[in-house]
Design the sequence.
């Protein structure tokens, strides 16, 4: 398991298919600010799991298929 999977999760491994906002930004090749703006605009939904804020990879993929503009 890579070190990044332990990033701020209290040593717990993240479930596959979930990304933190910074990871989602890298996944979509956009800025972190863009991720938060997409949330504010209702394009992306954030989920809370314990103390972590996560996004579903499937939601990110669906946003791209709907024509998300970087």
Sequence:
């Amino acid at each position: 398991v890579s070190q990044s999977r332990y990033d701020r999760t209290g040593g717990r491994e993240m479930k596959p298919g979930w990304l933190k906002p910074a990871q989602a930004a890298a996944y979509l090749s956009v800025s972190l600010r863009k991720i938060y703006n997409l949330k504010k605009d209702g394009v992306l939904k954030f989920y809370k799991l314990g103390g972590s804020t996560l996004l579903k990879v499937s939601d990110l993929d669906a946003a791209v298929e709907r024509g998300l503009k970087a």
Summary: Residues 1-12 have pLDDT under 50 and may be disordered. The first strand starts at residue 18 and ends at 19. The radius of gyration is 12 Å.
